[in-house]
Amino acid sequence: MNAGIIGLGRCIPNRVVTNADLEKMMDTSDEWIRTRTGIEERRIASDEHNSSHLAFEAAKNAIANAGISADQIGLILVATVTPDRPFPSIACMIQDQLGAHNAAAMDLSAACAGFMYGLVTAKQFIESNTYDYVLVVGVEKLSKITNWEDRNTAVLFGDGACAAVMGKVSENRGILSFELGADGSGGKHLFQNDAGHIEMNGREVFKFAVRQMGESALNVIEKAGYNKEDVDFLIPHQANIRIMESARQRLGLPEEKMSTAIKKYGNTSSASIGNALIEELEAGKIHDGDLLVLVGFGGGLTWGAVAMRWGK
Ligand code: ACO
Fold it and tell me: Could you give the residue numbers annotated as active site?
């Protein structure tokens, strides 16, 4: 028996900020942003909508999509680096709003690998028969910790939330293998500084990400007992198209077999992988029985990957 995703939902803020909008705010250009990052536009949440609001909407949609009721959920895990406040956790806030009265609830912090950490943690509780259903949310309001005067980082990020209800799925579906990792010595390359802003050594993060994404993807394929030729679709963390392309090329996949949701949403950190998965499902690019690889990396430094056979 495997644990797998049985319902998905997301919440994408309405406000679109294009590269042309950013050109008016700082010394940058649409051409630079597109060619260096692959980003064309991103969504920014309104002042009155905090991370908990985005998380609640995404979670509500995922629970409806799974066809369960909120009180059947045993655990809520919210991956975020932009909680409304350190406590109470977003997980506790949405537990109450959803009416998930039987659920334990906690936030987890693994930056852009947070959704992967959430999925893998949920898998343990489901496969040990501890809980029937675990709700995993990835949510960020990165706009509130972005230094809008720093063009090196301000052009990269967006806001949003995704949610997955995890439960038992039939044999040969769900999460087949995983890898999680961390290297705290790299924390200095990507962190929230004392002013509360994202600070990043882009080149160091780039080098780490190129190496780690490819390696982790290949590792989970092997652990699942498959070859890279068996992979149907790659969902990499949507951080930079050039990093994503290098992972795709290491797997030998054609362009159309990798999500490039980054174009429309930028880097939404914990929300990026789940949001990209939903984007590609809605576009009809992922089918029942497909072998998927989801892989992410983030501040910490952290990384995580799963090989997953899509379907219930
Ligand atoms: N517009 C125009 N020019 C810019 C901009 C901008 N927005 N940003 C930087 N530049 C300039 C730099 O100042 C530099 O100019 P110089 O040569 O005169 O000094 C030039 O562009 C090149 O800068 P580089 O930093 O070398 O550009 P690079 O090709 O490395 O791309 C980038 C920068 C996009 C940040 C890249 O390094 C990258 O994607 N790194 C990884 C980022 C990432 O994945 N972060 C994950 C964070 S998610 C999380 O965990 C929260």
Answer: 112, 237, 267
What is d(CA 273, CA 285) in angstroms, rounded to the nearest whole number? 15
Strand partners, 251: none
How close is the Cα of 156 to the center of ligand 1, in Å? 9
Say which amino acid occupies 224: A
Domain residue ranges in the chain:
2-168, 174-309
Q: What is the pLDDT of residue 173?
A: 97
Contact present, 166 and 126 (Cβ < 8 Å): yes
Ligand 1 atom closest to residue 242's alpha carbon, by position in its atom list: 39
What fold, for 174-309? Peroxisomal Thiolase; Chain A, domain 1 (3.40.47)
- Ranges in the chain, pLDDT < 50: none
- Per DSSP, the chain holds a count of helices (H) and strands (E) of 10, 13
Ligand 1, CB within 6 Å, residue ranges: 28, 32-33, 36-37, 111-112, 151-152, 155, 190, 200, 202-203, 205-206, 209, 239-240, 243, 267, 269, 298-299
pTM for the predicted model, two decimal places: 0.96
Distance (Å) from CA 202 to ligand 1 centroid: 6
CATH of domain 2-168: 3.40.47.10
Ligand 1 centroid – CA 34 distance (Å): 12
Rounded-to-integer distance, Cα 173 and Cα 168, Å: 9
Confirm whether 2-168 and 174-309 share one CATH topology.
yes
